[in-house]
């Protein structure tokens, strides 16, 4: 499967995002068909360093059993130490160029972008994919910027240098099909799965809504 295909249903989660045990939520999300997982441990209830590493290893093993790539948010050292498949960085984190210079060639580097300029720079620096947003209002990121909307998303897509793209921010089953019609390769969600009463069913529903039809 190509990275572009892997972006179809990108689940992001840390312990603070979950209503149930993180291991259980990830297992259900995997059973529901997520195609990529990002470990993003932040917030008030986030674990300490030792516990973070232990949880990362536990979730990584579960992803491996389902052949789903495991990416770490922000923390390049943790990602390298545990042999993660890659890292995802925002604009405040280490630059894509610096990470590219010190990581194995097949290490996936994802970058966040909220504007044409950020998308162009990440692409120039060697990012493997772009996470664009927040598209809609989100309750899952304390310092989130103002949402760009579906039109804002569509306006950035021509400037991604052909990189695979995933939309993020406030996406759930009610808007997923509209988001996909902008031309992104997939959607990245936290709460639509992590806070769902039934994460497996939530993931499975999003999976079918993100499936490309032959005519697309
Ligand atoms: N980056 C931009 S929006 C966001 C991140 C990490 C949070 C997305 O969470 P949700 O619950 O899917 O809106
Ligand atoms: Mg970050």
TrEMBL record:
Enzyme Commission number(s): 2.5.1.3
What reaction(s) does this enzyme catalyze? Answer: 4-methyl-5-(2-phosphooxyethyl)-thiazole + 4-amino-2-methyl-5-(diphosphooxymethyl)pyrimidine + H(+) = thiamine phosphate + diphosphate; 2-(2-carboxy-4-methylthiazol-5-yl)ethyl phosphate + 4-amino-2-methyl-5-(diphosphooxymethyl)pyrimidine + 2 H(+) = thiamine phosphate + CO2 + diphosphate; 2-[(2R,5Z)-2-carboxy-4-methylthiazol-5(2H)-ylidene]ethyl phosphate + 4-amino-2-methyl-5-(diphosphooxymethyl)pyrimidine + 2 H(+) = thiamine phosphate + CO2 + diphosphate
Q: What would be one Gene Ontology cellular-component term for the protein?
A: cytoplasm
Q: Which family does it belong to?
A: Belongs to the thiamine-phosphate synthase family.
Q: Which residues are listed for 4-amino-2-methyl-5-(diphosphooxymethyl)pyrimidine binding in this entry?
A: 38-42, 73, 112, 141
Designated name of the protein = Thiamine-phosphate synthase
Give start and end of each Thiamine phosphate synthase/TenI domain: 9-193
* Source organism of this protein record: Kushneria sinocarnis
- InterPro entries from the entry? Aldolase_TIM (IPR013785), ThiamineP_synth_sf (IPR036206), ThiamineP_synth_TenI (IPR022998), TMP_synthase (IPR034291)
Cofactor dependence is on: Mg(2+)
């Amino acid at each position: 499967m190509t990275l572009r295909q892997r972006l179809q249903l990108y689940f992001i989660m840390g312990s603070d995002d979950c209503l149930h045990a993180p291991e259980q939520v990830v297992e259900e999300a995997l059973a529901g068909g997520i195609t990529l997982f990002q470990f993003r441990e932040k917030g008030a209830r986030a674990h300490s360093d030792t516990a973070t590493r232990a949880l990362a290893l536990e979730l990584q093993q579960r992803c491996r059993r389902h052949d789903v790539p495991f990416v770490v948010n922000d923390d390049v050292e943790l990602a390298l130490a545990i042999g993660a498949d890659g890292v995802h960085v925002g604009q405040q984190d280490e630059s894509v160029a610096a990470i590219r210079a010190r990581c194995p060639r097949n290490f996936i580097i994802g970058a966040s972008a909220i504007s044409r300029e950020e998308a162009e720079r990440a692409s120039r620096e060697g990012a493997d994919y772009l996470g664009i947003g927040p598209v809609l209002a989100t309750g899952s990121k304390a310092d989130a910027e103002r949402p760009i909307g579906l039109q804002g998303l569509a306006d950035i897509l021509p400037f991604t240098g052909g990189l695979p793209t995933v939309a993020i921010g406030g996406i759930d089953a009610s808007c997923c099909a509209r988001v996909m019609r902008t031309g992104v390769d997939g959607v990245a969600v936290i709460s639509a799965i992590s806070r769902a009463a039934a994460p497996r069913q939530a993931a499975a529903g999003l999976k079918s809504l993100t499936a490309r039809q032959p005519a697309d």
